[in-house]
Amino acid sequence: LAFGCPGVVAVLGLEAAAPGECELTRLLQDKLQYEMRLQYMKHYFPIDYMVQVQYEEVLRPSNITRLRNRTVSEVALRYLWFHVSSQAVLRIREVLPEKHPSWKYTQELGQLFDALGEEYSKYRQTDVEEVVADLVKLVHSAGTESRRKAVRPKALLDNCLKVMRMLYGTPCEWGLG
Q1: Does residue 3 register a pLDDT over 50?
Q2: Considering the entire predicted model, what is its pTM?
Q3: Which of 69, 85, 73 is nearest to 28 (CA)?
Q4: How far is CA 45 from the centre of its chain?
Q5: How far is 160 from 154, CA to CA, in rounded Å?
Q6: CB count, 10 Å around CB of 67?
Q7: Less Cβ around it within 10 Å: N or C end of the chain?
Q8: Which helix (H) or strand (E) holds 149?
Q9: ∠ CA 27-134-83, rounded to 5°
Q10: Mean pLDDT over residues 121-126, rounded?
Q11: CB atoms within 10 A of CB 118
Q12: CA neighbor of 57 nearest in space, from 169, 165, 168, 153
């Protein structure tokens, strides 16, 4: 993938996550601590509350493993994770009134994803494998109402964190304690 610098082409492998990506995902990891997800995404919602999302908006570790087995690049997987996870936060925010106790928390998550979006604005869908570009298009397409499923808000953020740790833990040298 080529970055925005003229004449500079970086071949990105497992080890290459931009310092900005590592810092922002580390901040996200702090915001997604279990206690916070439990409080803001479960306790502050009605029992068994579900959010309607597209099938493509649920990204689990098994999806990443399957794509890795198809030799999809780590950069493309991180690009996919970003789009799916930021969309999940948007889906949760859509159901919250401003006075809801989880509003500020999801707003802060959204701001971190917006900052991460700046890192990913360097990429174009043509820079990533077709399978990932197609999934990203599906995540952002509004006309797939029939392909929806109900998911708990906490489950969306649980998946977000698990996949983020899979994709960033090694290249960003996190201690996963």
Answers
A1: no
A2: 0.84
A3: 85
A4: 22
A5: 10
A6: 19
A7: C
A8: strand 148-151
A9: 15
A10: 68
A11: 10
A12: 153
Among residues 139, 84, 162, 138, the alpha carbon closest in space to that of 116 is found at 84
Which pLDDT score, from 0 to 100, does residue 129 have? 83
Quote the mean pLDDT of the chain.
84
Q: Is the pLDDT of residue 1 over 50?
A: no
Q: What is the secondary structure of 15-37 as a DSSP string?
A: T---HHHHHHHHHHHHHT-HHHH
DSSP-assigned letters across all residues of 91-127: HHHHT--TTSTTHHHHHHHHHHHHHHHHHHTT--GGG
Q: What angle do CA 16, 65, 152 make, to 5 degrees?
A: 105
Helix (H) or strand (E) holding 148: strand 148-151
Q: How far is it, in rounded angstroms, from Cα 79 to Cα 136? A: 9
Per-domain residue ranges of the chain: 19-169
What's the CATH class of domain 19-169? mainly alpha
Are the C-beta atoms of 56 and 84 separated by less than 8 Å? Answer: yes
